Amino acid sequence: MFWQEQYPQLIFPLRVTSNRQHPERAFQLTAWEREDDGSYVVQGPWRSKYLGPGSPPLLPASALGVNAPEHLLASDWVLAAAAFAVSAYWSSGARHPENQDVTDEALGALRLGILLLPLWEAVSVSPGPLAEFVRLRPVRETVQALKGEFGSNLPTESREIIEALRSTRPPAWTREHVVHLLVGQAVRIKQYVFETPRLPQIRGASILLERVVGAAAEELGATYSPECVLRKAGGSLLALLPTPDSGTARDWEARVTSIAYRLTGTARFAAASSAVPIAHLLPSAVDHEFHRHVGKAYDILERVREQADEPLWETLPFEARCDICGDRPAEFARILYSGEGSVSLCRVCAQRHEVGRRERQKLTKQAWEDFGLDPLDWIAPASDDDTQTVSVAASLVDLAPSDRRRRWLAMVYGDGNNFGAIVQRLKGPAEQLHWTRRLYWTVRGLTHVALVGATVHFAKANTSSDKPRAAEADERVAYSAVPFELLTIGGDDVAFFAWAPVGLKAVERLQAALEHEFSPLSAQSGNVTSDLPPVTFSFGIAAGDEHIPVRRLRDVAEDVLLKHVKGEAPLGAPRGRIAFFVANNASDMTPLRAKKAWRPEHQSKARRVVLSLQPLTSEQLAFLLHKAHDLRSEVGRLSRLATAFLKADPSVAALHYRYVRARAAARSEGQAGDTTDPFFTALERDTAGHSWTLFAPEGAAALPLLPSSATSDGSNGSRPIFRMPLLDLLQLVKAMQ
Ligand SMILES: [Zn+2]
Q1: Does the pLDDT of residue 363 top 70, yes or no?
Q2: Which residues surround ligand 1, an ion (CB under 5 A)?
Q3: What is the structure's pLDDT at 269?
Q4: 219: burial class by Cβ within 10 Å (0-12, 13-18, 19+)?
Q5: 589 and 699 in contact (C-beta within 8 Å)?
Q6: In sequence order, what DSSP letters do the residues of 374-405 get, joined into one string?
Q7: Distance 348 CA to ligand 1 centre (A)
Q8: Quick check: 349 and 331 in contact, CB under 8 A?
Q9: How far apart are CA 195 and CA 366, in angstroms?
Q10: Weakest-pLDDT range from 11-20, 369-378, 635-644
Q11: Which of 156, 205, 233, 522 could be disulfide-bonded to 491 (CB atoms 3.0-4.6 Å)?
Q12: Distance from Cα 396 to the centre of ligand 1, integer Å
């Protein structure tokens, strides 16, 4: 379905573009450009790669002449209208029991007419197969009727439906008939996905969950029509069942869960359904009824989820168990990794591994395509005889370049802030579906661009014009495998693994791009205001070396860091923020330690110094990451400086700082005539276009730390509090090693 997938993929994100010709400028941000005819056109290779310069245009629904609200896209309107038409048609037997000649042909003509409406003129003159439809009389009559000219050959049902679509008030019959909403969702995803610590199986599991949703959507589309699938993202599905019969709806619930069982062997899906009057499906609806009914279905789903039970596996005492999960009976013997022996696998683990192995390369390639680069220019090809495919990491540790002394890995979780409150304010099904489509394709596109951009950023460090030291030229990162692995993109949420520097850099860029993409239009052009709260995102990043169990990284990144950042983002907060936690070893990477590292202000108050300022904005992270990269060989000196501030009164620590600095300067003066030490130069100078005042605009964060420059804290009388993210910087320096 072009309007459901290809079209949103082409137009979202709206304001960010990649650049194939100039990879160094690949992350440029573009604004909308308004054409003379009033349509918005997006410039840039992101789209021209597919459809030629400036294409495709954003077709506004208001140009369709069908009473659609100004801000809707034509694609939103036709998808909602087609879903309404299908629902209304299937209920027409109940509405007109005397008239049983409802035909598939009539419904087909109605759907085609609606779906072709935005492109009708263009299709009429095109040589493609779509032009055939234009010549079909029933389709032509549908289009004419949608534009207000009702012909005499139009079937009664079609006429009624088109009149309902064109009217501003729903006709009485649309309130009397109901169809059903179907929602489905994976249950206990974490247990299934993170059952094993191996990357191919983790990724395979998340791919399988998406495949369940895809298979259910396909079955539904084939039975009714594709536009009945309202949303499918990650492990969740929202669909319209154009039937008034609750028994049929329950059959579909069972079908979804059985598809899940068939494809994964174990993962549970919960499904639920709820009736909705056809009137609420009209694209002209401007109330909150559609959303309320979707909410009702999810409430039922929530109750079903709690009851969904895990399938029990019985392993007899003498049976061999699976080497991976250690739980289910082994059925296969496989060699999973070259150089390792054969292992015994259960059916569930074998399937996860197989799917992960086959699909990962394809999905990684998609990310590079979105960016407009050939991965083979940057990363070694796969080691087997097929040199045309890029190498994906065989295991988590292989995400980090093999020549690194320590191989730091990051697990990243991101999620939208207060999106429930935003969705509640959207009106009618077309707005709701516009929001979910825009969100999904934007987050997906920007995540791809950010990850590939961050990968290239470190790979081309030797050709960069920004060379703090001559030694930089030797710092080229030669990747033997793609240093990132996407786990899920579920709409507003995203999760991925990466080599820690790439993961941190990608989050910084993703956050900046999301802010740009979703900044209110008034900030861009100065003439439109929105009554919606700001659309912002939170990120949690847990980084450690390969000895830290992947479940531990997950727990810290999602359950501690992401949760805390989201908790500190009240509705209306203008900026999204980022938190990270870097731990040296498994005993430090625990939820408890991560919680303690969070905002240690309560302890610092007595000492009048705050050394961690998380959560950070994207500029703050960019500043610290840049510094961390420059200082990555100086963990020891930086750590001693931070210790001074941790242990002593800030005025004493500041004295210590100035003493160490002066001594270092004197030493380098004696040697080369240079009056500053490179360590302090790198630490103090402006970086990435900002100075340390980025963290305390009032000036308290200036280096060297002078007691007089501190601000006074309102609650603490005249005693000043220093704000200096030395501990944040120290963590990042470790991860950059
Ligand atoms: Zn197993």
Answers
A1: yes
A2: 322, 324-325, 328, 346, 349
A3: 87
A4: middle
A5: no
A6: -GGGTBPBPSSS-TTSBPBPSSGGGGS-TT-S
A7: 6
A8: no
A9: 27
A10: 11-20
A11: 233
A12: 19
> What are the residue ranges spanned by the domains of the chain?
2-174, 177-307, 372-598, 599-729
Distance 208 CA to ligand 1 centre (A): 15
Looking at the domain covering 177-307, what would its CATH class be?
Answer: alpha beta
* C-alpha count within 13 angstroms, C-beta hemisphere, residue 467: 13
**What distance in angstroms lies between residue 531's CA and the mean position of ligand 1's atoms?**
51
Question: What confidence score (pLDDT) does residue 108 get?
Answer: 86
For the chain, the C-alpha Rg in angstroms (whole number) is: 29
Beta strands in 124-250 (DSSP E): 178-187, 229-233, 236-241
Tokens for 586? Answer: 């498994």
ipTM at complex level:
0.98
Structure letter (DSSP) for residue 710 = P
Q: Ligand 1 mean position to 216 CA, how many Å? A: 25
Note the CATH number of domain 372-598: 3.30.70.270
Alpha-carbon distance of 653 to 119, in angstroms, equals 69
How buried is 673 (Cβ within 10 angstroms: 0-12 exposed, 13-18 middle, 19+ buried)? exposed
Ligand 1 centroid–CA 351 distance in Å is 9
Dist CA 204 CA 234 (whole Å):
13
* Cα 324 to ligand 1 centre (Å): 5
Region for 563 from its dihedrals, namely left if φ exceeds 0, alpha if ψ lies in -120 to 50, beta otherwise: alpha
Mean predicted confidence (pLDDT) in 37-59:
42
| Mean per-residue pLDDT of the chain | 79
177-307 and 372-598: identical CATH topology: yes
Rounded CA-CA distance 534/638 in Å is 37
Ligand 1 center from residue 230 Cα (angstroms): 34
Distance of CA 69 to the CA centre of its chain: 28
In the reported structure, the alpha carbon of residue 331 is separated from the centroid of ligand 1 by a whole-number distance in angstroms of 9
Side-chain-facing half-sphere of 72: CA atoms under 13 Å: 31
How far does the centroid of ligand 1 lie from the alpha carbon of residue 321, in Å?
8
